[in-house]
Amino acid sequence: MATGHTDPQRRERILAATLDVIAEEGVGGVSHRKIAERAGVPLGSMTYHFSGMEELLREAFGRFTDHIVDVFDAHLGGAADRDAAREAVTGLVHALSEGSRRDLVLTQELYTLAARRPAYRELTHTWMRRSRAHLEKHFDPGTARQLDALVEGLILHRALAREPHDRALTREAVRRVTTVRR
């Protein structure tokens, strides 16, 4: 592994290490020293690649939201019709709630930052807009907004419940939100 400024992967390792440290210790436990150690880079390279902790956190969380939007795309991208989209949303909820605890923790850490700091609120706003764009390929904008909120809530409830609800309940909740009433 290269260790000089010519190391083309150093910046990426720093970003990945930042997310790892946040997932393990929370944003409050993050320091340049811990990140550099985790990334296997000299401490001085932290300020070479990033102007400060705020830039590092924003960029790392930006990478994280890109990852989650990619998960949305992987589930919803192949849905050919509304019924397939409903099933894809059901699968998305279960994949994210049964998947990486790291992703769950990073999501909650980002939400906490967004509740406190406008720069992170803008990041979550962009993330929500991108997620809803995937849903709007199959549902009208109002339904997509409701469905996006439902997805977030169902993921959190399933991930934290002692006895998570089953796929049938998720499927029914998605159907109710996406059924047009006249």
UniProtKB/TrEMBL annotation:
- Annotated HTH tetR-type domain ranges read 8-68
Provide this UniProt record's keywords sorted from A to Z.
DNA-binding, Transcription, Transcription regulation
Q: Does the keyword Lipid biosynthesis apply?
A: no
* Cross-referenced InterPro entries: Homeodomain-like_sf, HTH_TetR, Tet_transcr_reg_TetR-rel_C_sf, TetR_C_31
Q: Which residues bind DNA?
A: 31-50
| Gene3D superfamilies found in the cross-reference section | Tetracycline Repressor, domain 2
Q: What is this protein called?
A: TetR/AcrR family transcriptional regulator
Q: Which organism is it from?
A: Streptomyces cinereospinus
